[in-house]
Description:
By secondary structure, the chain is of the alpha+beta class. The protein contains four helices and four strands; from the N terminus they run E-E-H-E-H-E-H-H.
Amino acid sequence: MDNSGALVPVFRDGIAYDRNDRVRFWKVEYKKTDVNLAMAMYRDTAKDLYDQVVLCSNDSDAEPVLQALREDFPALLIGVVTPVSPTYLAKGSPREVCSSLSRHVH
């Protein structure tokens, strides 16, 4: 990223979203959220804490953990719920689940 930064929409609690209300930011820091989620899903399953797991995501980065869960815990039921933005709802067309995720779910 150059020194000018990038513009992103601002979240203002209690105020309707306005895509033209933007703020400049300088650095995006990846906090390994998907990795932490994957580890938690796998470890909790290994501890036999549940019989089924549902991931609310459409990020293909989750594919490795879903594949590992299917292979290592064949009795575990796995589901994926794809978040839908208001834009998709307004268009009336459903958002499709990432094919790499859907291969590993029931």
